[in-house]
Amino acid sequence: MTAENPIGLVLGSAVAPEDVPGAAATAEACGFDELWLAEDYFFTGGIAGASLVLGNTSNITVGIGVVSAVARHPALLAMELSTLARVYEDRLIAGIGLGVPAWGRQMGLHPRSPLSALRECVTTTKSLLRGETVDLRGDVFAFNDVNLVYPETGTPTPIRMGVIGPKMLQLSGEVADGSVLSVSAGHDYVRWAKARIEEGRARGGRTDAHPITVFAIYAVDEDGAAARASARAKLAFYRQNGSNGLTDVYGISDQMDALVKQGGYEAILQGMPEQWVEDLTIAGTPEECAAKISAFYAAGADSVALFPVATDRTEEIIRLTADQVLPRL
Q1: How many secondary structure helices (H) and strands (E) does the chain include?
Q2: Who's near 41: CB < 8 A, 6+ residues apart?
Q3: What angle do CA 176, 252, 96 make, to 5 degrees?
Q4: pLDDT tens, 119-138?
Q5: Other residues' Cβ atoms within 10 Å of the Cβ of residue 222
Q6: Is the peptide bond before 180 cis (omega within 30 degrees of 0)?
Q7: Distance between CA atoms of 27 and 57, rounded to whole angstroms?
Q8: Which pLDDT tens digit goes with each residue over 97-114?
Q9: pTM exceeds 0.70, yes or no
Q10: 13 and 43 in contact (C-beta within 8 Å)?
Q11: pLDDT at 186
Q12: Closest Cα to residue 95, out of 5, 234, 212?
């Protein structure tokens, strides 16, 4: 790929930890530009996973996408990020969000103000990485003269926000160095999100670059119908928590919530129209997948990170993508 249209791969989550290093090395050898480590609770850890990937690759950019702002205190998050950044200079991107609410509730994590939690986490993490001392009693986090003994020494690690709703996207434009858009984003949502981000950038007086990475559920097969069937199951998994900004923009929130009430995952799996899979995933033959990736770039994405659903065949999917999808982009 080219620097203008980078293509990434999402590892972690349902990929077993022992399979991450080999998949990462294969992806780098096959020409991918970015590797992202999702931190879906309670699967494979994002920061530990990023460490595995960085240690088993040479040059590829590695993103953590995304860790919850409230699962770790920002001082601990900054400490972990700086540890990686000092050893693997100029290779790390850090994504911070809130995480899936249902998983947060399982840990008893209920920020009084989600907006304040993200603002405080992103701004203080950036300050600590720069070597500044933070002394703050915020709405969510408290710091008593905290500074890192080993702050970053190279180019500052970009801190991106993984968010969905309009106010969160505006906040990302204001305080973050880029945005990560969640799986099941459609092309209209990408355009809409970009506009909200630009509103925040104007509010914050930002004129620097603000890259947007889109995560996409990904299934590729010579049998396009088989690929779409596997993507359907993963889409149902991620949509079982109900509607949000992604479904609002796509115009299916009422229908989605009705399916959730009918029976959650199974009702969504059986009841969702095929068009949802067509519009909200990258699934099909290699030619179809290449066209869908290109459509995301046309909608305003700066990079697309493919989230393979066939986690038991990750390296096979990587090679198939490199051989038959990437050359078509």
Answers
A1: 13, 11
A2: 68, 71, 99, 100, 103, 106, 107
A3: 20
A4: 999 999 999 999 999 999 99
A5: 10
A6: no
A7: 9
A8: 998 777 778 888 888 899
A9: yes
A10: yes
A11: 95
A12: 212
Rg of the chain, C-alpha, whole Å = 19
Give CA–CA dist 306/318, Å, rounded.
10
Residue in the structure block whose two tokens are 């305003």:
300
Residues 316 and 292: their CA atoms lie apart, in Å, by: 20
What is the C-alpha to C-alpha distance for residues 160 and 26, in angstroms, rounded to an integer?
Answer: 26
Nearest Cα neighbor of 90 from 26, 155, 144 is 155
Residue appearing with tokens 């919530």: 257
For 135, the token pair is 């002394």
CA-closest candidate to residue 14, choices 189, 174, 179, 218: 218
- Written as one letter, the residue type at 105 is R
pLDDT tier at 14, thresholds 50, 70, 90: confident
In the chain, % helix, strand, coil (3-state, to 5) comes to 50, 20, 30
Instruction: Provide the residue count of the chain.
Output: 329
- Classify each residue of 146-171 as buried b or exposed e, where b means 16 or more C-beta atoms within 10 Å of its C-beta: bebeebbeeeebbbbbbbbbbebbbb
Cβ pair 284, 292 in contact under 8 A? yes
How many CB atoms within 10 Å of residue 197?
28
